[in-house]
Structure formats: structure tokens, C-alpha cells
Amino acid sequence: MKNSKYSIFFMKDDTHVRKFHISSFCLRFYVILQIMLITLTAGALYVGVTSLHDATSLKQEKLRLSRQLKDAELRLSTLGNMKKIFEAYDKHEIQNLLTTAPENGKNNELQKAVDLAAIFTPTDYGLIKVEELKASFVGSSLNINFKIENPKLNTVLSGCSDLAIVGTDGAIFPLKTKQSDLDFQIQRHKFVRTSVKLPKGVTKDNAFGLKISINRSDGKVIFSETYPLYHILI
């Protein structure tokens, strides 16, 4: 049996028959090799599927951590901005307002003067992005450049932007500019470039931030954010 051989015939029409001899050892080796290849292929497929599952899980975890980091950065930035707003007030005045009895109504004076929720609470429905925001003071005017981007490329988004200056005392001053500069109807993106005169009483020294609000064509506010000027001035 050890010396036995097997004959293999190859036949084709109109040609002579070809005959090959193969030993039983080579045949067994070929069968074992095929079994090994099938086993290795199955193992590779299993490793590939497992790695793909792990990669997907890691990607989801990365996105979750990225969102948490973004939220933490936003809260930290908000706290820093609130601190700067309060630093603009006289400390003795704040203390007096906070310690005044409720019945005289003066403890609400600071809250009315500085509506922190209106200034710093962001709105973002994920329908539009604001990127590449830059601003610069030129005399008594403020030049503003930013890009609005539609993340859903298969849809057309239309609406308008509203701009306002936030003073160091917490007051909000709407900015008036050409409506055509702020109106948009985009499928991908639009670069907004506009120049506005500073409202009366607002200067470079007492301007704290730029508030951008974006309204959809139906009037719904889909994005709102306050950007400290020291982050965006060029």
C-alpha cells in the first residue's frame, strides 16, 4: 500500500489520452493540504468578522467619547464666559443684589440685566453647521465671515441668519446688515461675508461676544451659539 500509485487520465475530444501517475503519499498530502487551507480560510474569516465587530464598537465608543468631550468643552467655555460677564460688574453691587430681601424685588435686577440663558444656552438640531468663523474690527464697524454648511447633501435648506453683539455687561445688541448677506438657500454650503456698523454705545473694548442665530424658512431657530470675540478675532 505504501508503494501504491494512482493513475489519472485526462481526455479531450480528438486528442490522445494523457496519463499521470501519483503516489498515495502525494494524494494524502494534497487532501491534508486542502483541509488545512479550508481551516485557515475559515479561521481568517472568523478573525475578520470579529475584528470588524470590534472596530465598529470602538468607532461607536469613540463617537460617544467625542460627544462627551464636546459637551464638557462647551460647559467649560460657558462657565468661563459667565465668569467674564460677572467680572464686568462691580463686585459690591453684585453682593448687594444677592443679599437684598426678596420682597423689594431688587434681587431680580441682576437676573434681568444679565440673562445668561439667553446668551449662552446653545441650540443645535444638527440641521446646519457654522464653520470658519472670523471677525475683525475696522473703525466703528465689524467685519464678519463664516461658512454655513448643510450636512444633508440630498436636501435644500433655506432660511436666514441673525447676528448680535453681546456686551461685557451681558446686554445683547442686534446687528443690522443687508438681508441678502444673511439669507441662504443651500444644498451644500454658503460663505457669509458682511460688514456691520457697531450699535450705539458698543465699542471694541466693551464688546464681549458674537451671537449667531440661524432660522429656517418656517421661522424655527435651528442653530444658535455665542462666540467670545477673543476666540474669533483676527
Classification by helices and strands: alpha+beta
Total number of β-strand segments? Answer: 11
Q: What is the molecular shape?
A: elongated
Q: Please indicate the percent range of residues in DSSP E strands (runs of 2 or more).
A: 25-35%
The helix content is 25-40%
Q: What is the typical, i.e. mean, pLDDT?
A: 79
Radius of gyration: 35 Å
* Poorly predicted sequence stretches spanning 5 or more consecutive residues: 101-107
Termini distance?
90 Å
> How many distinct helices?
6
Write the element-wise H/E pattern from the N-terminal end onward: EEHHHHEEEEEHEEEEH
> Largest sheet at a glance?
6 strands, antiparallel
Give a written overview of the molecule.
The protein is α+β, with helices and mostly antiparallel strands and 234 residues long. Helices cover 39% and strands 34% of the residues. It contains six helices and eleven strands. The strands form three sheets. Strands 3, 6, 7, 8, 10 and 11 form a six-stranded antiparallel β-sheet that branches. Strands 4-5-9 form a three-stranded antiparallel β-sheet, with no helix packed on it. A two-stranded antiparallel ribbon has the order 1-2. A hairpin with a 2-residue loop joins strand 4 and strand 5. The longest helix has 64 residues.
